[in-house]
Amino acid sequence: xxxxxxxxxxxxxxxxxxxxxxxxxxxxxxxxxxxxxxxxxxxxxxxxxxxxxxxxxxxxxxxxxxxxx
Length: 69
Fold this sequence. Notes:
- The structure is a single chain.
- The chain has one helix at residues 32-41; strands at residues 3-11, 21-29, 49-57, 65-68.
- It has a four-stranded antiparallel β-sheet.
- It is built from one helix and four strands.
- The longest helix has 10 residues, at 32-41.
- It is mostly beta strands.
- The two termini are 25 Å apart.
- The protein has one domain (3-68).
């Protein structure tokens, strides 16, 4: 796996008085092309959910994970 798809999901909205919660997921991908194709599958938005994706080269010591910040 040479690339890592990073997905940031933000829940809540300060507009409606909610504290935002951010989750980060890292999913290994075989190639940059596959990563970009997978990123498009996560491209949508709803009023209180925001998603951002990006593809980055994978570091040797990096594993797939999900982190809540």
